[in-house]
Design a protein that fits this description.
Elements lengths: L4 E4 L4 H4 L7 E5 L2 E2 L3 H7 L4 E7 L5 E7 L8 E3 L37 H7 L2 E2 L6 H10 L4 E4 L5 H8 L7 H10 L4 E7 L6 H12 L5 E8 L16 H11 L5 E3 L1 H7 L21 H9 L7 E12 L4 H11 L3 E9 L17 H8 L6 E5 L16 H8 L2 E5 L6 H8 L3
Length: 423
């Protein structure tokens, strides 16, 4: 994919130059662009020559002067302009392989691209990292990265990822240490494979790498009803309890919220989560939501009645029941919590990002509230599409309900502001 312009920021240099959505940036000072990293590097100059292909196919060359670190105000369709580096593994726990047909096309893409890890926080396994990749990372001192480690046992990692290159994990991580390039580590815990003593080994090895390891996230394997074998077992209460005990021995190790819920333990304080560096993996999301909620000043009374229903994941059910209890102290206000059962995926999947339109419809079609509140994490970014490809309008038609979408994933600030409009 070339460097296609998605949009241009208002009042930016790009707008002054009449760069438009659909234009293609061919080069900067004669340098072709492979990705957003190249763009950010070459745009840092006081004098630039842009080669642009306009939507009509014409080629333009523009010379300009600007402040050294001033951006042009261009938003691109993708962070990578050439081919995304594909995943070469066949991981036993791969969630992509546990999906049915008929979902959004992008959900079937398996990438393992260090550039997306640096730019967007996606996880990489290092099994396809080339010498050229390393030379570029070192020369530009890129980082931090997000690395799927899973285990530091070479033979076990090959078994879990079904790729002989997976055995070189400690060699690769030691290279990051030598280059003083920081990274966040991820462990997908698969009972019977990398739990117990193997988890101890992995955490010890990562801890011995020192300051280059910023955080270590441990998340439970996700198993859907579409899985075609019984190789994997789900994380039980006993395994969750054992994992929490092991992780507590290591300062940088943080278990995802699901472990605490499975073990029946309270969500720990913010200090546990190493700066909330792996929120997208569900590591600290509930704590951040609860702590943020405690900062709001709530009204004592509304001028007219208002009722809301939180349609949330089972993972966040307890947190929203607490929030609902606090909000229901407001006079003339009423809210309920209705967790969405994941019939589509199976009972082992309890996160909001995988809630389908049909499961949401089943949950809220009979509620009596004025509005149904959902998180934007249920929707494709910058859209109203659910994971099964149906949109919010479809859900509205099927339920005859009005919806409030909370755009900030870990804050209810927007909702509190909405409630305050009724005071």
């Amino acid at each position: 994919m070339p460097a296609i312009v998605s949009e241009v920021e208002q009042g930016s240099i790009a707008e002054e130059l009449e760069i438009e959505s659909g234009d293609i940036i061919l080069s900067i000072d004669g340098n072709e662009l492979a990705d957003l990293i190249d763009y950010r590097f070459y745009v840092n100059s006081e004098e630039l020559t842009l080669e642009i292909q306009k939507k009509n196919g014409e080629i333009e060359e523009i010379e300009l002067e600007k402040d050294y670190d001033e951006d042009l105000g261009i938003v691109f369709e993708s962070a990578v302009f050439d081919k995304i580096h594909p995943c070469l593994n066949k991981c036993i726990f791969c969630f992509v392989d546990q999906q049915p047909e008929g979902l959004r096309d992008t959900l079937y893409i398996k990438d393992d691209d260090y550039r997306l890890s640096y730019l967007q926080g996606t996880y990489i396994t290092l099994t396809n990292l080339t010498k050229e990749d390393k030379d570029r990372i070192s020369a530009m001192h890129l980082g931090p990265f997000y690395i799927s480690v899973h285990t530091t046992n070479p033979e076990l990692r090959v078994k879990m990822q079904k790729n002989p290159n997976a055995a070189k994990i400690m060699e690769e991580l030691n290279w990051f240490k030598e280059q003083e390039i920081p990274f966040h580590a991820q462990i997908v815990l698969c009972p019977g494979f990398n739990d117990g003593k193997e988890l101890e080994r992995t955490l010890k090895d990562l801890t011995n790498l020192g300051d280059c390891v910023l955080s270590i996230a441990i998340v439970p394997v996700g198993i859907t009803t579409y899985r075609k074998d019984s190789v994997l077992k789900r994380v039980t209460k006993n395994i969750a309890t054992e994992t929490l005990k092991i992780a507590n021995k290591y300062n940088k190790a943080c278990c995802s919220d699901e472990f605490f819920l499975l073990a029946g333990e309270e969500i720990p304080p913010a200090e546990y989560y190493c700066g909330f560096n792996q929120l997208d993996d569900g590591v600290g999301a509930i704590r951040m939501l609860l702590d943020d909620f405690e900062t709001f000043e709530l009204p004592k009374k509304l001028k007219k009645p208002l009722s809301l229903t939180f349609a949330t994941s089972y993972a966040a059910k307890d947190a929203f029941q607490y929030i609902s209890k606090v909000l229901n102290k407001i006079e003339n206000f009423n809210c309920e919590v209705h967790p969405v059962k994941a019939d589509y995926w199976g009972e082992n999947i309890t996160v909001a990002g995988l809630i389908t339109s049909e499961d949401l419809i089943k949950t809220v079609k009979d509620v009596q509230s004025d509005y149904v509140v959902i998180s934007s994490i249920m929707l494709k970014p910058f859209s109203e599409l659910f994971i099964d490809g149906k949109d919010l309008n479809y859900v509205k038609q099927k339920t005859n309900k009005e919806f409030i979408i909370i755009k900030e994933q870990y804050s209810l600030k927007e909702l509190v502001e909405y409630i305050n409009k009724y005071t």
